[in-house]
Amino acid sequence: MEAVALFSFTASEADEISFQKGDIVKVVEMERDSFWFTAEIEGKRGFIPENYISLHPHLWFAGAISRLEAEQRLCWQDPGVFLVRASESAPGEFSLSVSYGDRVEHFRVLEDGGQYYIWDKAFCSLNRLVEFYRAHSITMEKVVHLRDYPSFHLNSHLGLNPYPNPYNSNLLESTAALTRLPETGRPPHLHSNQF
């Protein structure tokens, strides 16, 4: 997931990475510690303080859910409705789950040197990968373009859709808290990086 740096940060440990205010940061892992994220900046990977950045959350990012839960969320959705989740089998990596209408397919998102890919075309971020497969079929067996959950389905309580929204609203609530600036306008206090 992409983020923008709210403040400059100078690394004080070998496993941290420095960045400047306004830099675009690629967050690659958020699960280990609530105060530090694993991120990548210009091909370098290390820890960054979570309260120095503002995440650009996407409704399609479901976080750490299981393959089974992804299938349950997507099984009755229109073809192309998708979500990205943290990989169960490869911690720190991602999987893309897509409704084919009659079934759900899962694609492992491979990462190599800061590039993400499913087939042979590489992208500098998950966001770019998703955008590409919105315009190009994710599979060769039939045409399936990634698409968001239709907005009218968000009103499922009105009876328009008997199936729940596949996107995790809790992620939006938790990432909204991360985007709040401290009232002082100064960088927030850093927490200890203990694992």
Please tell me the total number of domains.
Answer: 2
Q: State the fourth-level CATH superfamily of the largest domain.
A: SH2 domain
In order across it, which strands form the biggest sheet? 4-3-2-1-5
Give the second-level CATH assignment, the architecture of the largest domain: 2-Layer Sandwich
Rg from Cα: 18 Å
Number of strands: 10
Helix/strand/pairing category: alpha+beta
Terminal residue distance: 22 Å
Mean pLDDT: 78
Strand content: 25-35%
CATH class call of the largest domain: Alpha Beta
Shape label? elongated
Q: What is the H/E string?
A: EEEEEEHEEEEHH
Helical element count? 3
What proportion of the residues is helical, as a percent range? Answer: 10-25%
CATH topology name of the largest domain:
SHC Adaptor Protein
Question: Largest sheet, described in full?
Answer: 5 strands, antiparallel
Organism: Xiphophorus maculatus
Keywords: Lipoprotein, SH2 domain, SH3 domain
Pfam families: SH2, SH3_2
Protein name: GRB2 related adaptor protein b
